[in-house]
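input
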Amino acid sequence: MIEAVTDEGFLLAVLNSTPVIDGVPADDLADPARARAWLASVGGAGTEAELQHVLEAREALQAVVRGGEPPAVLAPLLEGSSCVPALTDGQITWALSVSPDRQLAVRAVLTWDMLAKNSPGRLRPCANDECQLFLIDHSKGGTARWCSMAVCGNRMKARRHYQRARATPPVSAPPTSSPGR
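output
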């Protein structure tokens, strides 16, 4: 198994790099210097070309996970990449062979593919329509709906409670009989 390619945390970081903060869309990779430093911290080279490939992969992966595009849009991101076997300590290992500037983008796509095959439907967008984040559902029943129960989950539950409370007609007091009748 290609250990570096199964990095779910890296894939989520790439997918979740376009959060909505206080109702305003943001892009954690918009500052090129910060973005390149982050890429270097996760094993990349931190080059401008690498950043461009990761941004392309992010856009395509977000569209695929949201269901707006078919997985075929990911094919160009994988062109020219291969996995090369090696025998190490009596075990076969696989190493990703791709140009250094494309390695992180390919890593994200291969991690998506592994999740799609091994845990179908577990990588999905947050159920909060106002949130742009994604989650990998590791719950036993596969019922996780929000990127964060503390943030989106509580917010959505409170909103539903408020809507139900408003939809329930107020209970009026029963008519009282007038004295003397």
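quick obs: Helices lie at 8-15, 32-41, 48-66, 75-78, 103-118, 149-167.
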